[in-house]
Specification:
The structure holds two protein chains of two kinds.
Chain A (H helix, E strand, L loop, with lengths): L2 H22 L4 H28 L6 H14 L3 H32 L7 E5 L2 E5 L9 E4 L9 E5 L2 E4 L1 H4 L5 E3 L4 E2 L4 E2 L4 E5 L7 H10 L7 H26 L1 H4 L5 H15 L2 H20 L2 E3 L2 H8 L1 E7 H5 E12 L4 H11 L6 H10 L8 E7 L3 E6 L2 E6 L1 H6 L12 E7 L2 E12 L3 H10 L5 E5 L4 H11 L3 E3 L4 H14 L5 E6 L5 H6 L2 E4 L6 H6 L2 E3 L5 H36 L5 H20 L8
Helix pairs in contact in A: 1-2, 1-4, 2-3, 2-4, 3-4, 3-9, 4-22, 7-9, 7-10, 9-21, 9-22, 10-21, 10-22, 11-21, 13-14, 16-21, 21-22
Chain B lengths: L1 E7 L4 H12 L4 E7 L4 E6 L6 H13 L4 E4 L1
Antiparallel strand pairs in B: 1-3, 1-4, 2-3
Helix pairs in contact in B: 1-2
């Protein structure tokens, strides 16, 4: 509880005390009035002051004015208890509301608690704490165990485990050592790290993320704009209705007094306050965005959260998104020699090549290569390599190379790339290399269908038909397109956008490396593995910080849940208000119930919207 | 030109949205968002703005929510 709330609490308690005293002395009219009046001023003095102040500024119909009018009215009619009660209830409600808002603010700001306060820099011999904003690129900073890494950089000295959960939601710490790249916002768990700064504070990961989260609310969702528009028309309509209610019935209905009708009109006005909606709807969105960020999912605005919840078609890029984007040896098929020998020849021949396929063969060979045994290396671009290893001539390459060398071989139909190996112009076997599907890819697609009712899952790839169809079959996507250039991918997404139903959305998931145009074109662009990639953060609407595909499903789940909470709040608040408005108009519910309804609805709606903040951590 | 302000004592969501609407109408303001929960106001000004607009801002703010103190960040 803050200072302001504490003061209010004390006044409420004192006011209750004087109210009890007035009960005791209620037989004496004058004493009763005096104690009730003291009680009233204690709890409502501030409201009265505000109402008078606002009146001078030409602001009539705010809550303060309505409450003052209603309670002063009660005093004039000598209903002292009612006057105090109404004000007391109103203030207790305000206190609760303020407390609930304060609490939500705290939970939200604790999410954003990744801003580093200082950086340790050597000034002369001494280690000093300085503002991270003053540290320049190339400076050395020291991060002790338990401290936040304040700026992006490269480890210069030391090793340790770092906790990246604030950025990625990943709870398993990551090991870093000399030359490892570290990002600001991570926490150093063990060891002492000396880091050479590579980015200034404003450009560092932590600043970018904070900027995104803090400004997320500037992209308003339709539901939020609806509330603003609603309030615009709602207030004048309610005021006109209240005026009618006060002055029309006494003319037409015989036994209704003007006083009774004015009372009803005021009750009506108190109920009509749209507070519950105005607070709870943005709070729900804010909670949803905050909750997602706990999992390492950044949503750039509430409008995107809303759009994500309406996703029916999900388009995935293949390489780097559904697959690991890393080539590795998946099959070694020797014919005349041993498997080991085949790998050895291939690895030796590819030693000097930088081609990704050569790289993956060398990675999978693992043994040390004796450079002296290799001579006469000739690389044929787009075909392969021919060289001498010891006294043998080794040829490693594709079909075209084998044909050029007039080696007789049997062509293999494999998924991925096939590398043929010939020794002294004799075919000895082949190695098959392909990209691997991510472990969680299939499960993600299943979950998207079952948990989040995604109708259609489409895969796009620049790879050939065989690879595409094999991956598509394994994952069980509904549709795939192969041999696409980046520009074709935009075209396919545009085609899907044309086909869709108006109220549904097409999302595109990519790694953000060369699919920025597609990310922007789709209704929702989701970038994967974006940590450290500025282009992806720029182009996408939803950003998954690490490579975990399951988080896409979680992001959709969070969006749906948030929208559900928003809708609950809208219907609940409007529903209760309408009921009480009608009851108030006919004089069935009075001021006390009106205040109760108004404040109660607000608090319940706030509590409900806070649910959006709590997401399950895996 | 983008400026960020901290709105101290902003404790009414309705006022926050009223504040937003009023500031949006000021001359020289390109875009404004008032975030009730972070108590932050993000102001996007036209490039040829002058300091007069900041006084204007304070005036509008004092009219709608007298308790709020605008602190530039």
């Amino acid at each position: 509880m803050n200072h302001k709330e504490k003061k209010l609490l004390v006044r409420i308690l004192l006011s209750i005390f004087f109210l009890i005293v007035s009960f005791i002395v209620s037989t004496n009219e004058i004493l009763l009035f005096v104690f009730c009046f003291i009680s009233y001023l204690l709890v409502g003095g501030e409201v009265l002051m505000k109402a008078i102040r606002n009146l001078f500024k030409g602001k009539f119909l705010d809550e303060n004015f309505l409450m003052s009018l209603a309670t002063v009215g009660a005093f004039v009619l000598k209903e002292y208890f009612e006057g105090v009660f109404v004000m007391l209830l109103y203030q207790i409600g305000e206190l609760f509301q303020s407390y609930a808002v304060e609490n939500s603010r705290k939970s939200i700001s604790s999410l954003m608690d990744i801003r580093p306060d200082y950086a340790n820099v050597y000034i002369g011999e001494k280690l000093k704490k300085v503002n991270p904003e003053t540290v320049k690129v190339g400076d050395l900073i020291v991060v002790k165990a338990g401290e936040k890494i304040p700026l992006d950089g490269v480890v210069e000295n030391g090793e340790g485990l770092i906790d990246t959960s604030a950025l990625t939601g990943e709870t398993v710490p990551k090991r870093v050592m000399k030359k490892s790249v570290v990002l600001s916002g991570c926490i150093n768990k063990t060891g002492l790290l000396t880091i050479a700064v590579t980015k200034e504070f404003g450009e560092s990961t932590v600043s970018k993320i904070l900027d995104l989260v803090e400004n997320a609310s500037s992209k308003k969702a339709k539901a939020e704009n609806f509330i603003t528009k609603f309030a615009k028309y709602y207030t004048p309509i309610v005021v006109i209705l209240a005026l009618c209610l006060a002055f029309l019935p006494p003319i037409f209905v015989r036994n209704l007094t003007v006083i009774e009708c004015v009372k009803r009109a005021m009750t009506f006005l108190v109920i009509s306050c749209p507070c519950a909606l105005v607070i709870s709807v943005p709070l729900s969105f804010f909670g949803g965005i905050g909750g997602a960020s706990k999992l390492g999912i950044l949503v750039k605005g509430s409008s995107y959260l809303e759009a994500l919840s309406k996703t029916k078609v999900m388009v995935f890029d293949k390489t780097g998104t559904l697959t690991k984007g890393k080539f590795s040896v998946t099959k070694v098929f020797p014919i005349t020699i041993s498997e080991e020998k085949l790998m050895e020849f291939a690895a030796y021949a590819e030693l000097y090549s930088n081609h990704p396929i050569a790289q993956s063969i060398k990675d999978s060979y693992k043994k040390k290569i004796n450079k002296d045994r290799i001579s006469d290396v000739k690389e044929f671009s787009g075909k392969g390599v021919v060289c001498k290893v010891s006294d043998k001539e080794i040829a490693v390459g594709n079909k075209a190379l084998m044909e050029d060398l007039a080696v007789s071989f049997s062509e293999e139909k494999n998924i991925g790339t096939t590398v043929y190996v010939a020794v002294d112009k004799k075919y000895v076997g082949y190695i098959s290399i392909s990209d691997q599907i991510k472990d969680e890819a299939e499960l993600t697609i299943q979950k998207l269908r079952t948990e989040n009712k995604i109708d259609k899952i489409v895969m796009l790839t620049g790879d050939n038909e065989e690879i595409a169809s094999s991956v598509a079959l394994q994952l069980g996507v509904d549709q795939y397109y192969s041999k696409l250039l980046p520009i074709d991918k935009v075209e396919k997404v545009e085609y899907l956008l044309l086909q869709k139903n108006q109220n549904t959305n097409v999302a595109f998931v990519g790694d953000g490396i060369n699919d920025a145009p597609v990310l922007t074109r789709a209704d929702i662009g989701i970038a994967m593995g974006a940590l450290g990639s500025d282009a992806a953060i720029e182009a996408a609407d939803v950003i998954i910080m690490d490579d975990d595909l399951l988080k896409i499903n979680e992001a959709v789940s969070i969006s749906k849940r948030t929208i559900k909470i928003v809708k609950q709040n809208i219907w609940f608040a409007i529903g209760i208000k309408v009921v009480f408005l009608i009851l108030g108009a006919f004089g069935i519910s009075h001021m006390l119930e009106a205040v109760f309804a108004d404040v109660g609805v607000s608090i319940l709606a706030i509590l409900n919207s806070m649910r959006a903040l709590y997401v399950k951590k895996r | 030109m983008r400026k960020n302000f901290y709105l101290k004592n902003l404790d009414c969501a309705n006022c926050a949205s009223r504040l937003e609407v009023a500031i949006q109408k000021l001359n020289g303001v390109k875009d404004v968002t008032v975030n009730f929960f972070t108590q932050m106001m993000r102001l996007e000004l036209n490039d040829d703005y002058n300091d007069e607009i900041l006084n204007e801002l304070k005036r509008v703010c004092a009219k709608i929510e007298p308790d709020v103190v605008i602190i530039e960040k």
